[in-house]
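Allow me, if you will, to draw on your knowledge of protein folds for a short while. I have a record of one protein: its chain in single-letter code and its fold written as discrete structure tokens. I should value your view on which stretches of the chain appear to form regular backbone elements. Thank you for your consideration; the sequence and its tokens are set out here:
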Amino acid sequence: MLFCLLVIGTNLVLFAPFLSSQFVANFSKTISLWFQNFEFNASIYYIVRWIGYKIVGWNIIAKAGKILPLVAISFIAIFSLARRNYYPKVLIESMLFAITSYLFLSTTVHPWYLTIPLALSCFTHFKYLWVWSLTVIFSYFAYSNPEFKENLSLVALEYLIVIVFFVYEFFFSAFKNGLQQTKKN
């Protein structure tokens, strides 16, 4: 809790000179525009969008773009507050999972967005980001098309591989940690 208060306090002090009602309004518009207008190499959002087309018959980015960031913030809060982040290993894993959840829920994921989580993964035993950094290349197929149209089959393949690897690693890690706890007792 002390760490969270320290981070919040530091950010408030550092951003205080820039804070104004105009800054907050412009920043909010930018975030809203980003989540409600742009689509590229998304995972969960593309599934939500497809469901929206089936149910209401049009692209629901305006509504989904308001809800998905709140879900991402919820996951980030869980990783920030519910884990024992005073251990460096746990803190780095929490940071990795927080940014991963944000990227899985984002409407736009450019390949270079993976640089920070990829760097974090180097300090953990999780390697799904290494796999993702290889499969994200599929997203560049959109640039080969004059209409800049994504091949959703390639996007699906990218995320299918990443999510299967992530789930395997996550549950294998939990199973392995459970075995280690059993041996200690």
